[in-house]
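Exercise 7. Given the components listed, write out the predicted structure of the assembled complex. Treat all entries as one system.
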Amino acid sequence: MSRVIVEVMLKPEILDPQGKAVHGALTRLGFGGVVDVRQGKRFELELDDEVTEERLAQIRNAAETLLSNPVIEDYTVKVEQS
Amino acid sequence: MSRVIVEVMLKPEILDPQGKAVHGALTRLGFGGVVDVRQGKRFELELDDEVTEERLAQIRNAAETLLSNPVIEDYTVKVEQS
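Answer.
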């Protein structure tokens, strides 16, 4: 068993209304000193076996085609050490 | 300028229909070997200054009260080294 994390964030040039709303709420509630907030998604994939290079390439493919929209989003794939 | 990451995931005992849907889609699309998927949120907070212990305590407070629902979600706060 191993775990791979896929993080999907909007590209920096894409407007992020969710992040903006969170930023506004933080400021209103008195949490100062925050200049920007971006909100994205985080996927934890539990694999039945070791993480091989081939398996990782397959997950990158899934991240690009299913988990993110590459027109507006960037993704990163990380292997979680247990 | 510094950046703090807040990750919010459903608690392990809480059913995650979004993750289940992603898991089903991965399997249907031929991405085998994945036994479970959990989907959560990821917030990038851009701060105007250095991350101090006091600032970090404030962000943990925000994570608990605004960014997550502590009844069903867990959060982690990480300082991103730049």
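Discussion: The CA atoms of residues 59 and 77 of chain B lie 8 Å apart. Chain B has two helices and three strands.
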